[in-house]
């Protein structure tokens, strides 16, 4: 991984057409969303940053993910 990924970044996931937007990062996995709405969960070691998010976009997204809303990473 060339640089640290963060929510809001655009990344290229190995083996997947992209770019993908990082929605959430937890326990070594990144939840990604493609521009067409498809979502993908991959190991953070298999993605490369294409474009870093602006600091306001990343911090707003991080605050949003820290709420109690459920995600793909939540255990049932």
Write the layout of secondary structure elements.
Elements: E1 10-13, E2 20-26, E3 29-34, E4 39-43, E5 47-51, H1 55-65
Antiparallel strand pairs: 1-2, 1-5, 2-3, 3-4
Protein traits:
76 residues; alpha+beta; 5-stranded antiparallel β-sheet; 14% helix
Notes on the protein architecture:
Helices cover 14% and strands 36% of the residues. The chain is an alpha+beta fold and 76 residues long. A five-stranded antiparallel β-sheet has the order 4-3-2-1-5, covered by helices on one side. β2 (20-26) and β3 form a beta hairpin. The radius of gyration is 12 Å and the shape is globular. The N and C termini lie far apart (31 Å).
Strand order within the widest beta sheet: 4-3-2-1-5
Rounded radius of gyration (Å): 12 Å
Which secondary-structure class do the elements indicate?
A: alpha+beta
**What is the end-to-end distance?**
31 Å
Unreliable segments of 5+ consecutive residues:
none
Gross morphology is globular
The tally of helices reads 1
Helix content: 10-25%
Number of strands: 5
- Whole-number average pLDDT? 80
Secondary-structure element pattern, one letter each: EEEEEH
Largest sheet: 5 strands, antiparallel
Strand content: 35-45%
Task: Sum this structure up briefly.
With 76 residues, the chain is an alpha+beta fold.
């Amino acid at each position: 991984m060339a640089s640290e990924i963060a929510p809001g970044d655009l990344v290229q996931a190995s083996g997947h057409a992209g770019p993908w937007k990082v929605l959430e990062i937890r326990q070594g996995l990144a939840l990604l969303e493609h521009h067409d709405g498809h979502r993908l969960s991959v190991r953070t070691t298999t993605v490369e940053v294409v474009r870093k998010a602006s600091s306001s976009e990343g911090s707003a997204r991080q605050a949003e993910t820290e709420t109690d809303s459920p995600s793909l990473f939540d255990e049932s």
